[in-house]
Write a structure and sequence with these properties.
The protein is an alpha+beta fold. It has helices at residues 11-28, 32-38, 43-52, 70-81, 85-105, 108-119, 236-272, 284-312, 318-343, 354-361, 371-381; strands at 124-128, 144-148, 151-162, 169-180, 183-192, 198-200, 214-225, 229-230, 274-275, 278-279. The strands form three sheets. A four-stranded mixed beta sheet has the order 1-4-5-8. Helix 4 runs antiparallel to helix 5 (85-105), helix 5 packs antiparallel against helix 7 (236-272) and helix 7 runs antiparallel to helix 10 (354-361). The structure holds flavin-adenine dinucleotide.
Amino acid sequence: MTSCQPYELTDDQREMQALVREFAEREIAPHAAEWDQTHTFPTDVIRKLGELGAMGVGFPEEYGGLGMGAVAQALVIEELARFDSSVAVTIGANVSIAGDPVLLFGTEEQKQRWLVPLAQGEHLGAFASTEPSGGSDIQAARTTARRDGDEWVINGTKSFTTNAGNDLSAFVIVTAQTETNSGTKLTAFIVPTGTTGYESQPPYHKMGWHASDTRELVFSDCRVPNEAMLGELGKGARVFLQPLDGGRVGVAAMSVGLAQGALEQASAYAQERVAFGAPIARQQAIQFKLAEMKTQIAAARLLTYRAAALKEAGQPYTEEAASAKLFASEVAVRAAEENMQIHGGYGYIEESAVPRFYRDAKILTIGEGTSEILKLVIARKMGLAG
Ligand SMILES: Cc1cc2nc3c(=O)[nH]c(=O)nc-3n(C[C@H](O)[C@H](O)[C@H](O)COP(=O)(O)OP(=O)(O)OC[C@H]3O[C@@H](n4cnc5c(N)ncnc54)[C@H](O)[C@@H]3O)c2cc1C
């Protein structure tokens, strides 16, 4: 099934979309079920995607990227999620919550050391904000960083960190409470993998995204030099929140891709499954489900591309990113559920991709801002929150 293009893409964007689609069909689709069942992080495929340019699409050429912008980056993530959300989130988190903070707030030296190899696909980065005591209220973090001469000493625990413990992981950006002239405030630090006192725990046993790398991180008297500070002292919340808008566009793109994949599975099955003497696709009840899925996906795609286009144009896009993620993630959950309903009992059996898509969908309404938090962001932009 061709996915409709509600947004006028450039030739370069279409070319990148086709390149990633062809790669995903060849290198990812045949293995996605096995990675899911064995909880395997596909290091080689992530490396190959790096060689293809998938991590650098949106970054400027001077920092190792392809300079194609945020819409092309969204297209890459969408195409990957049509087949495997774990691979899509590995790329999405790497570029938006690890690469973008370095691009936006890093010194030239930090960009050369961490961003250039990330954009070229040589290593992965992570951002650790969430803690066992909470994720939505980022200011309430309990991790601390204490100044000691030319160093900072970090202590605390971060939960649910994506990309912090696999063979390609090179650094994690950590937010920690620091003493400033105006009180205790969050500051961000870049901590290289392998730093003494920084330990990543075994991967979580998750409901979905089995082939992605999510871990708890423990910092015990972990020392980093002053040059590890990312952005200014006491401005760590900004270092996390500003790139998070881009992260939300990435999750929206992932949602559109997952929903599109679910629609394609459901549509193909409906045309081959016979009940009461005819393919179930002839039943109006099934046609209505597929028509609604298609319409909702088209709307989600428009919102997603609009937010990406605003980011690319350097215009404010906080509200648009929140709207796109809020709507698209809920569309993805519905599409995954309808896909299972249309598959009947077979949809419940792990031999097909249907349950994997169902399990992978739900986190889209939680990670990088829950649906509730996104509504608060939109309400604030509407001037309703004081
Ligand atoms: C697979 C996976 C990967 C992740 N990757 C990362 C990562 O790389 N880096 C990272 O830092 N974090 C990561 N996270 C964490 C994720 O961002 C958080 O789970 C999410 O932000 C929600 O935080 P929480 O789980 O602590 O829920 P809480 O903040 O405790 O919220 C619980 C519930 O209360 C609701 N709620 C909270 N406050 C309000 C409010 N003011 N108004 C209304 N409702 C409210 C929430 O919407 C939610 O429904 C990941 C999580 C998972 C599961």
